[in-house]
Structures are given as C-alpha cells and as structure tokens.
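FORM 7B: Structural annotation worksheet

SECTION A. Query
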Amino acid sequence: MSNNEHIWVIIMAGGLGSRFWPISNTDCPKQFVDTMGTGRSLLQLTFDRFEKICQRDHIVVVTGEQYTDRVREQVPGLMPWQVLGEPLRRNTAPCIAYAAAVIAQMDPEATVVVSPADHAVFGLERFVRNLTQAIECVQEHDWIITFGAQPVKPDTSYGYIQFREPAVTDNLYEVVTFTEKPPVEMACQMIASGEFFWNTGLLVWRLPVLHKAYETYLPAIAESFFGLTLNTTHASLEQVYSQCEAISVDHGIMEKADNVHVLAASFGWSDVETWDSLYGVFRHDKAGNAVTSGVALTYDTRNCVVAVPGEKIVVLDGLDGYIIAANDDTIMICRRKNEDKIFKFANDVEMQQLLYSKVNFDK
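SECTION B. Predicted structure
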C-alpha cells in the first residue's frame, strides 16, 4: 500500500446502541458488546480490521468521555492521542473534526479513513483490497470516497447512495444523491432502479481535502474544532462542544460536496443496528434460530434470536419469531416484528427499577 506511514483511521465509538437493549445499555453500549458471538466486541473487531490497514498507533478512537476507560480496557496499550473523549454527543461531524484536528498535529498530509465502531464486516481480504483501492484513489485525486453495500431488501433503517453510471474506474462511481432512511415505498423504488447502494458510513479522504470540506460547508465547526489540541483543557473542550451544531457528516458535507465518489464494496456488511439485522447476518440452526450467546435448548422453536449471558442455559418451547435477550438484571421476550417497542420496554424497566429502589429506600 502506498504511503502507509501517512494512513490514519478514526473510529467513531460514541453511540448508545439503545436498540440492542437489554444486552446494550448506557453503561455498556453496543460497540463494547460481543454482539457477533466471536469473543470480541464490535469495537475490538473494528480495531483488528484496521490494524491490517495502518500502523496501530495511527488508529484514533473517539467516544463519549464516560467510555474512555472502557475503550482502553478493551484495546490495551493505546497512546494518549488514540482515545479522545467527547464531553457531549454532537453527531458525527464534530466527532470527525475533533479527531482530524489531533491527527493534523502529527501528520498534516494524512490520509484519513473514518469508520463506525459498531458495524459488522465479512470478508477481511476483500475489505482490505477495497480500502486499499480507495486510499490510492484519494492520494491521487482530491476526492472523498464512501463505500456502498449492495442492498438486498428495502430496508428503511439504512441510508441510500445514488450513483451515476458509468464507473469512473473499477467499481468506483460519482455520487448523485444521499437519502437517509427512506419510507418503504421509496426504498422499493430505489432498489428496483438499480442505481442505489446502502450507505456503510465508511469514508476515505486526505486531511487537506477534509479541512477544505469543513471550511466550505461547516465553517463554524471548522473554526471551533481545528484549533483543538491534545493540550486543550477540558473546560475549553466543553465550551466548544456546548456551542457547536449537532450535525452528521453526511448531512453537513457529503450531501453538498461535488467531489464525492462511492466504491461498490465487495465485502459483506451490516450496520447491526437492530435485532432483526443481527438475525439476518448471524448463522442459523436448522430451525432458523440464531443463538449469539449463551446456550439454547430449543423444542418446536424456530426463527428466534437468542442472546443471554454466556453461562446461562435457556429452554425454549413452542416459539416462532421471537427475540430472547437478557443481561444480569433483565430478561426480554419479544416478537421480532415488534422490536420497535424496545424503547418503551427499556423506559418502563428503568421506571420500575427506580420505583423498586425508592420502596427499599423508604423502608
């Protein structure tokens, strides 16, 4: 790979992973959980992938400041600049700007890869090959390259990227539009047209191109963030975050820039955003059950996803299409088609726990 010493990676690990309740919660969000049943968290798997791309000390993880210790526990031996804690959640554009400012102090000509921490990738060799192609392209052109996955169904939880034929080069196309989480009718039309990819959220750009994009499309964020350093005081960092706009890099830059290209990914990908998406990518038994953790003894049970603590045995009889998930305190049994109720379940459980705590306190 050309100019390997100038390749840097920003891993965004600030999500709350609330859709994966109860195994994911505000204390330990999805990116820190072994969602895929591999013995490694999604963050660890992401870090492992990028060690194939660049030097270990060129990978920067941005997370909520309450999770910095958890990052260091899961990925030991990181240098100070490799774990950046955000005092407030302000979406992806400020997150990337903060990390880019730190990287610029050490390598102003860096080629920067940006990746979510909590997505699943299948086919490591193809992933490395695709990423190598994108890196070489942005080192030759002032482009921003994102990655598109081939859609397999009209999923309304994904963003979509419209591309223009013919390809600029192998599997690389100019971007026409971005559409975030369209309604199902529109998603069906997009897939039928053959002109759309799913948006993986993976970006590649050189640091000077990144700076120019922010200065052009998000000048207030550029002015506030590009002066940050590792020596910036916590009070100053808090002030910058409290005053900045909460905006995604897609909405703030990608939808507006005219130098964006999309590479058709040959690797498998899922954002593992929901229990249903996890079920879709996890291995199934003959009855269609996906047991991601724990031991499940199933009787007349099919099409279920099971995630319980590893030492637990769960016995299931007569279920079809359910989520069975548990942490040390809570067990959830919910129809897969009703997983949009999970936010209500989590809120109700929290209220019940508060009520229970108050009753005990009053005693």
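SECTION C. Observations
The chain has a mean pLDDT of 94. The first strand starts at residue 7 and ends at 12.

SECTION D. Sign-off
Analyst initials: ____
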